[in-house]
Amino acid sequence: MDRIGHHIDGAATAGSGREADVFNPATGEVQATVALASKAEVDRAVEIAAAAQPAWAATNPQRRARVLMRFVDLLNRDMDKLAEALSREHGKTLPDAAGDVQRGLEVVEFCIGAPHHLKGEFTDSAGPGIDMYSMRQPLGVTCGITPFNFPAMIPMWMFAPAVACGNAFILKPSERDPSVPMMLAALMEEAGLPKGILQVVNGDKEAVDALLDNPTVQSVGFVGSTPIAAYIYERAAATGKRAQCFGGAKNHMIVMPDADMDQAADALVGAGYGAAGERCMAISVAVPVGDETADRLIAKLAPRVEALKVGPYSSGDDVDFGPVVTKAAKENILALIQSGKDAGAEAVVDGSRMSVQGYEDGFFVGPVLFDRVTPDMDIYRKEIFGPVLSTVRAQSYEEALALATDHEYGNGTAIFTRDGDAARDFAKRVDVGMVGVNVPIPVPLAYHTFGGWKKSMFGDLNQHGPDAFRFYTRTKTVTARWPSGIKEGGEFSIPVME
Ligand code: NAD
Q1: Phi and psi for 390 in degrees, rounded to 5?
Q2: pLDDT tens digits, one per residue of 4-18
Q3: Which residue from 268, 374, 385, 428 has the least number of CB within 10 angstroms?
Q4: CATH code: domain of residue 128
Q5: Whose CA is nearest to atom 23 of ligand 1?
């Protein structure tokens, strides 16, 4: 059986203590073990990073960017291999796994433009004989803690800008699917990254706490569930680190009476059930406006949901979505589905107890479509992170807007309508970070930024786009005077530029 260790100081290294099982979610079998780093192992990686970082920061930004350029080629070369390894540990279909790599790759491409974003600011003659300039300097040793659901994309969203800015980066990926992050670190070094600049330390809370408590580590990027995001944000702040922590979601899609109902139903099926609903931008709540709209929507949705094909990624294109990631995740989803039924929601389609022939021990949950869900129910309040779509009937546009606005999460939302005025009003007023207009999963492209509001995000700078260069650098501003002004004597009042 494979034993996955760490990637430290330019090489795959064995772990030296505790281990966790890595499952194949389609079969339910343990296919590998992954090392869980101790504090001492984390501290050693940090020391190596700190020793390697100054030379990398002194490498000119264009040369650093060239490493990313070669990395893009290597990602394309190994795309199939990466997608297969990803599907085997995560369970998502192969095209979806390739998409996971691709959306990371696009941020790497954006980061090839880092020299432009790092240029800083300059004011000539800010005062008599005085120039003022600001430069962006790397933070030093940075780290990122990533979730299981995008094991390629999210690590790349973090490490590409971090290293492009001249930092060293330590990645602590999810212990559920650690193989692809290990492969990415090896590819970065094949692309020319010096050893010690990107390291992967596998582990659990012990490794995370060691990173948070290490005074050499300057910043923490986190993506995962909200309780852990809040914990990491607080602990990082307590130790004086810069932090951006992205949490869970409950994304609403408003369907107006004038929407193209076929288009809305197609969008909901893909956005609600793709990747078994294990996406932070999945739509988990449909909000038709008016009972007549709701009836028409459910009539279009139900047959589409019933027709969804669930199976292992190895079945190729014949599968719409795969298993969920672990047995514990499956049990949690089934318990929430049961709570919905107990609370009086109507299960229009209930595939929850399905099993896949030949894969009876896999962590499969079939698609569930609920109607007549109300905001007090757990299936509405909690993130299910499974193939479950809840329909909440709103009687007016204002009520629909208030649902998305008042929910504690604020990651993504969408409105389906033919009315430009309603769409414009919604985009402007809704209290959510990313909004789609007739687009169900509005994940911004690499050159815009990604981030939710409310309990979906703790921190002030988003992922990728221009914010990434702000997060991974700090500004130093220099005020320089070269003429002989000082000879005229000291100044005792605060200088004012005239
Ligand atoms: P998770 O919070 O369980 O784990 C995320 C990371 O935190 C992992 O690396 C894990 O090892 C670590 N971790 C877990 N428990 C910890 C603890 N007690 N102390 C310190 N570290 C700990 O999340 P997950 O199940 O891997 O991912 C799914 C969640 O991520 C969902 O809530 C989803 O919405 C969210 N997510 C959010 C975004 C976003 O951009 N907002 C993107 C993807 C996923």
Answers
A1: -105, 135
A2: 999 999 999 999 899
A3: 428
A4: 3.40.605.10
A5: 224
pLDDT for 129 equals 87
Compute, in angstroms, the gap from residue 174 CA to the centroid of ligand 1: 8
Q: Find tokens 């800008």 and name the residue.
A: 161
Query: Could you tell me if 30 and 201 are in contact, meaning their C-beta atoms sit under 8 angstroms apart?
Result: no
Kindly state whether residue 206 falls inside one of the protein's structural domains.
yes
Got the DSSP string for 415-429? EE-S-HHHHHHHHHH
Q: Which atom of ligand 1 is nearest to the CA of 174?
A: 9
Q: Is 365 in the pocket of ligand 1 (CB under 6 A)?
A: no
pTM equals 0.96
Residue 268 lies in a domain: yes
Same domain for 236 and 261, yes or no, is no
Cβ–ligand 1 contact at 246 (below 6 Å): yes
Ligand 1 centre to CA of 83 (Å) is 21
Domain that holds residue 17: 2-247+456-478
Q: Is 265 helix (H, G, I), strand (E, B) or coil?
A: helix
What CATH code is carried by the domain that includes residue 374?
3.40.309.10
C-beta of 204 in contact with ligand 1 (< 6 A): yes
CB count, 10 Å around CB of 119? 12
**Alpha carbon distance 309, 354 (integer Å):** 11
Do 255 and 235 belong together in one domain?
no
Do residue 308 and residue 406 come from a single domain? yes
Query: Model confidence over 168-211: pLDDT tens digits?
Result: 999 999 999 999 999 999 999 999 999 999 999 999 999 999 99
* Ligand 1 within 6 A of CB of 228: yes
149 CA → ligand 1 middle, Å: 9
Instruction: Identify the residue whose C-alpha is closest to ligand 1 atom 40.
Output: 246
Q: Is 208 in the pocket of ligand 1 (CB under 6 A)?
A: yes
Q: Is the domain of 391 the same as that of 406?
A: yes
Mean pLDDT, all residues of the chain: 96
Query: Are the CB atoms for 192 and 65 separated by under 8 Å?
Result: no
Measured in Å, residue 146 CA sits from the centre of ligand 1 at 6
